[in-house]
# Entry
Amino acid sequence: MKILTFSTLYPNAARPRHGIFVETQLRQQLKTGQVESMVVAPVPWFPSRNPLFGEYALHASAPREEQRHGIQVLHPRYLVLPKIGMTLAPYLLAQSVKPVIERVLAGYRFDLIDAHYFYPDGVAAVLLGRRFGKPVVITALGTDVNLISRYLLPRQMIVWAARHAAGIITVARALKDKLVALGVPAGRIEVLRNGVNLQLFRPVDRESWRSRLGFRRMTLLSVGNLVPLKGHDLAIRALQLLPGMELVIIGDGPEREALGTLARELGLSDRVTFVGVMAQEDLRHYFGAADALVLASSREGWANVLLESMACGTPVIASKVGGTPEVVTAAEAGLMMEERTPTALADAVRRLFEHYPDRGATRRYAEGFSWAETTAGQLRLFSRILAAGAAGRTKSEPTAGF
# Structure
């Protein structure tokens, strides 16, 4: 099977951790030898690489084309209109990518478009699929369904895309339920959760790495972009109620300065450490050396970081959002907060350490989430769509004006 992987959530040389879970999933598919793939991963257009522009400059720095792990990846630019452009985003994305797809087809006659993220990516993919007569599979990841669907026109476009896609995948049952509530037939949706790379994320020499990383106390990790929804501030505030513990925050983002200020104002600077963004190969050392991972998010689709921590033998404490209750289902995995407050988080930490699980059992729990089952399910879906002649059935007249 020849697949065209399509997503704005895909790593590039300028942003190597952006959407890394999509790349990981594709690499698992390619390992089977049953598929070939080329990736079209559009990047927002921005005119300057000046680092003063921060995240925008990284978009401009992304290469137009690159090879990642032997996979050809194209990064066409598309126009993003701040604030007013949400409803135009799928159309602008599709229009920008259309000439690229035409060139791709000249040398790579793909069978199916595998799109990740429902809006705008999935909607744009369906527009492109209708234009080129190719079936489209869309995977819902979280914010696309949980947040963007709250807006009327995007919600209508998400439902339209779902009805015209040849296949729909969600990474958590909670996301399937959300799509069903929007009017998408349940029978058209498959739940195929993300897995964890058990070869990369594995236990380390714990005492050695604790010494090398300077962990002197019982250590909590909070990992993710430094944005409000991740709840790093809750973890800092909870530390006030947890004397003798320290918190290591891994990630970067617009909240970095505010979080540092909060730690200083609460007198916790000596117990809160910020270490920035790091490669997954380095992240596993922090997971393995820590005593627990804290994920206090206000929303999640399927939080890969939970399984990565467990695979290193470290239990988790998480808020009850999105697909998280589907990940943390046993005592050896960790536990969930009763509510999303600093007090509830501190209470959950105490409860975890009162009945701390065997780290070997935590690792074995994570082993039940390997990629094998998920990858097999994806390939079965692709095969079923192609065998049924979905390209011919889903092809229709090109969308007006496209």
